[in-house]
Each structure stands twice: as C-alpha cells, then as structure tokens.
Amino acid sequence: MVKKITLAELANITGGELSGDSNLTVSSVAPMDRATDGDVTFLSNPKYAKHLGDCQATVVMVKSSQRDLCPGNVLVVDDPYVAFAKVAQALDTTPSPADIIEPSAAIAPDVSLGENVTVGANSVIESGAVLGDNVSVGAGCFVGKNVTIGKDTKLWANVSVYHDVVIGDKCLVQSNTVIGSDGFGYANERGEWIKIPQLGTVRIGNRVEIGACTSIDRGALDDTVIEDNVILDNQMQIAHNVHIGYGTAMAGGTIVAGSTKIGKYCIIGGAVVINGHIEIADGVTITGMGMVMRSIPEKGVYSSGIPLQPNKEWRKTAARVHRIDDMHKRLKAVEDQLKQKSE
Q: What pTM, to 2 d.p., does this model score?
C-alpha cells in the first residue's frame, strides 16, 4: 500500500517552512540524483548542493542557506537528515510482525495480554508473561516465563526472550536475536568446567532498537541493563552484567565483555572489541575495529584499528612492528651514549 502525504502535512511533520504548492503530494523519499515527481528528497551534505538546480523531486528539504538554490518547491528545515528520518517514518509501509493472534500460537492460560496484541504463527508465550497494549510478536518467537514486554514493542520473527527479562515500551527487536541467554560464567576445578548459574536477568528500557542475530546475556548476579534510547546493530554480543547508558549507539559486530559499563551518548563503531570490567565515560566515540583494553575516563574520539594498506606496504609495516622492541633497545643505547658524551 502506497502512502501519500501533502506538502502541508510534510511541513507539519518536520516543523519546516514551505515555499510552494501545499496541496501537492509525495509518496516516497529518494536520493537527489534519482528523485522524480512524487518524491521528496533532502540535502544534508553540502557537496551535493550543485545538483539542486536540476533536481526533479516534488519538494526538496534544505537548510535556509540553500533555499535560493532550489528553483521548485522547497521545505526549509533545521536539519535535513532528521527531517528525512521523520518523513520516512510517515511514509513507512513496513507490515506489523503479526496481524492477529494466530491459532497455532501457544499461549499459557495465565499470560496477561493488553489490548490489540498480535502473535504470529507457532510462537510460544510461557506462563506469567505480561504483554502490554499493541505488542506484536512475530512468527516463531519464544517468550519465556515471567517476561514483561511494554506497550507498542515489536519482536520480529524467531526472537527468543528468556525467563524474567523486562523489555520497555516502543522497542524493536529484529529477527533471530536472543535476549537473556546465559552469560559465560564457569569455574575451573582441576581442569573440569563447573557452570555458574546466571541468576540475574536483562532489563531493557524504552525506545530501544536491537538488530538481527544479536545476543544479550543475562547477568550472573546483578542484571544486564540497557537504558532508554539505545540502538544496537546486528550480530553483536553483549555479555553478562554489561550496562549501556542512555542514547548510546553501537554498530554491527561489536563484542562487549562482561561487567563493562558504557556511558551515555557513546558511539561505538563496527567490529569493536571491549574488554570486561572496565568503564567508558559519557560521550566517547570509538572508531571501527577498535580494541578497548582499559577504562576510558574522558569524553573524546578513540581509535586503534590498523587501516587497510596495499599488501606490500602492510608486509613492511608488519615486519617493522615485530622489530619494535629491538629498535627501542638500540635507540635507548644511542640516547645513553649521547647523554654520557654531554656530561
């Protein structure tokens, strides 16, 4: 189903100032170089401003400084990229994970279901679970005993939520994610591994989005906590007792070891590895492939990954890295000699 909104509605959605025909409609968002009649586009990168004069979109969303570059309908907004996100939401036609409570869903008799709850085919919801209003559970999901899921939250197909987990309002969990699995806790007695039962749970705040195939382990004693407004990408590992602060964003493939505390408004790049039992301050950015071995006490941008090089250059770099200790000893000897001569 195609949605259409007028330019007047577009202005209300974005809080922008419209110059043009308010009765015209748009039904999709498109890149500036491919936008045609019926599309809305936006300029967030100034280097593309040269294309504004030729743009065929019904309306272009720009900052006030680019208004005069647009010959057609223009919507002036504070942040075109944020405006794009809001318009994309308004035009979104993604279906719900489930439309009804399917007859094949297995729901325990004492489960508490709010209004307008939908559950997909072959899902299992166990005893004591509480699902708020407008919760949608996709096909093949498992919701364990005494789980609480807040209103307007969506679980896509094949999500597994273990016992006692708490998920807040307006969350979105993509397919094949596992929440509340056992943390990696074992003791070793003379070479034999003894499992440590994970007695905590996972507590997820409101407006949290979790990508596909991500694993979030339950706490060993205390809980694993993800605060409000956090976004987690696909294929991530969040270990037991990790605490992720408000508004933090973490890209795909990142691994966080146990009992680490990540502050508010952090940005963690893809494939980052974070050691356990450390703390990361509010507002820290870690670029992709970073390896975090110790606490980060101050806000800033941190990097450690080795950028890609042509193979011949990389082989030279690797060879030199292996000789760093020897080079350090030789340099130290030269410094000592110079110091003795100066004395």
A: 0.92
